[in-house]
C-alpha cells in the first residue's frame, strides 16, 4: 500500500498534480480542487519535499493514484465510497465541491439541502450520505484534540483505532470521543506512571462498560 508520496510538485492542475520524487520518479495523482488549491498556495521555496497522502485504486483495466493534502480528506474519500452508488470518481468530485469541515457539518445537521447542491450528489444521494455517514465522520478538531489532565494534555489521535472500533460497533462517534476524554482524565494518575499505550486495553474495557449502559 502507498501511504504517501514525498517530492516536488512539477505540475499542478485543478484535478491532478504531478510529483517528482527525490529518486527521479514522477507520480501523477488525481486530486480534489481543495487539495490542488492548498498545494498551489505553498510558497515555491517550501515545495521541494511536500507530502501528499495517497490512495491507490487497483482495477482490472487500470490503476489510478489519488492524492490528498490531509489524512482527513483521504478518510472522507474512503468513507464516501462505502455509500451505495458512489465510486472513487464521484467521491473525488464531491470533495472538490465541498470542504471536509462543511461536509461533516452538513451531515451532522442532516442538511439535505446543502448536500444536494454539491456537484455529484443530488437529493437522493444526500439522504444516503446522511443515513450512512452521519456518525462515522466527525470534525477534525474533535478527534485530533486532547484530553486535559492536571499534568497536561493526552492526544486523542493516539486512540483513533479505538474510536474507530467503537464507531464500528454502532456507537455515536461524538459520544465515543467525549467518553474517551472523560476516561482519560479519570485515570490520569495511571497515565502519569505508565505509557498510555500500555493502558489501552484497560481503557477499552472501561469504555465498553460505560458505552454499553
UniProtKB/TrEMBL annotation:
Asked whether the keyword Cytoplasm is assigned, the reply is yes
Subcellular localization, as worded in the UniProt entry:
Cytoplasm
Keyword Endoplasmic reticulum assigned: no
Biological process per Gene Ontology, one example term: DNA recombination
Give Gene Ontology CC terms.
cytoplasm; Holliday junction resolvase complex
Gene3D superfamilies annotated for this entry? 5' to 3' exonuclease, C-terminal subdomain, Nucleic acid-binding proteins
- What InterPro entries would the database entry show? DNA_helicase_Holl-junc_RuvA_I, Hlx-hairpin-Hlx_DNA-bd_motif, NA-bd_OB-fold, RuvA, RuvA_2-like
Question: Where is the region Domain III?
Answer: 156-213
Tell me which UniProt keywords the record has, alphabetically.
Answer: Cytoplasm, DNA damage, DNA recombination, DNA repair, DNA-binding, Hydrolase
Q: Where is the Helix-hairpin-helix DNA-binding motif class domain?
A: 78-97, 113-132
- Annotated SMART domains: HhH1
Q: Which GO terms of the molecular function aspect are on file?
A: ATP binding; four-way junction DNA binding; four-way junction helicase activity; hydrolase activity
HAMAP family in UniProt: DNA_HJ_migration_RuvA
Q: What is known of its domains?
A: Has three domains with a flexible linker between the domains II and III and assumes an 'L' shape. Domain III is highly mobile and contacts RuvB.
Subunit relationships: Homotetramer. Forms an RuvA(8)-RuvB(12)-Holliday junction (HJ) complex. HJ DNA is sandwiched between 2 RuvA tetramers; dsDNA enters through RuvA and exits via RuvB. An RuvB hexamer assembles on each DNA strand where it exits the tetramer. Each RuvB hexamer is contacted by two RuvA subunits (via domain III) on 2 adjacent RuvB subunits; this complex drives branch migration. In the full resolvosome a probable DNA-RuvA(4)-RuvB(12)-RuvC(2) complex forms which resolves the HJ.
Q: What does this protein do?
A: The RuvA-RuvB-RuvC complex processes Holliday junction (HJ) DNA during genetic recombination and DNA repair, while the RuvA-RuvB complex plays an important role in the rescue of blocked DNA replication forks via replication fork reversal (RFR). RuvA specifically binds to HJ cruciform DNA, conferring on it an open structure. The RuvB hexamer acts as an ATP-dependent pump, pulling dsDNA into and through the RuvAB complex. HJ branch migration allows RuvC to scan DNA until it finds its consensus sequence, where it cleaves and resolves the cruciform DNA.
Which family is this sequence assigned to?
Answer: Belongs to the RuvA family.
| Protein name stated in the entry | Holliday junction branch migration complex subunit RuvA
The organism named in the record is Candidatus Ornithospirochaeta stercoravium
Lineage at the top is: Bacteria, Pseudomonadati, Spirochaetota, Spirochaetia, Spirochaetales
Q: Which gene encodes it?
A: ruvA
Amino acid at each position: 500500500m502507498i501511504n504517501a508520496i514525498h517530492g516536488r510538485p512539477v505540475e499542478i492542475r485543478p484535478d491532478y498534480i504531478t510529483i517528482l520524487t527525490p529518486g527521479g520518479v514522477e507520480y501523477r495523482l488525481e486530486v480534489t480542487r481543495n487539495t490542488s488549491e492548498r498545494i498551489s498556495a505553498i510558497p515555491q521555496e517550501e515545495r521541494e519535499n511536500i507530502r501528499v497522502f495517497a490512495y491507490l485504486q487497483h482495477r482490472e483495466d487500470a490503476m489510478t493514484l489519488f492524492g490528498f493534502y490531509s489524512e482527513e480528506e483521504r478518510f472522507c474519500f474512503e468513507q464516501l465510497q462505502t455509500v451505495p452508488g458512489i465510486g472513487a470518481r464521484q467521491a473525488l468530485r464531491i470533495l472538490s465541491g465541498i470542504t471536509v469541515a462543511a461536509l461533516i457539518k452538513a451531515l451532522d445537521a442532516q442538511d439535505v439541502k446543502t448536500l444536494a447542491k454539491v456537484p455529484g450528489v443530488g437529493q437522493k444521494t444526500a439522504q444516503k450520505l446522511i443515513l450512512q455517514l452521519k456518525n462515522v465522520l466527525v470534525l477534525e478538531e474533535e478527534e485530533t484534540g486532547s484530553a486535559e489532565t492536571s499534568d497536561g494534555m493526552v492526544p486523542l489521535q493516539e486512540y483513533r483505532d479505538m474510536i474507530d472500533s467503537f464507531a464500528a460497533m454502532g456507537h455515536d462517534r461524538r459520544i465515543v470521543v467525549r467518553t474517551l476524554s472523560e476516561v482519560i482524565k479519570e485515570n490520569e494518575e495511571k497515565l502519569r506512571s505508565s505509557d498510555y499505550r500500555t493502558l489501552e486495553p484497560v481503557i477499552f474495557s472501561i469504555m465498553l462498560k460505560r458505552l454499553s449502559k
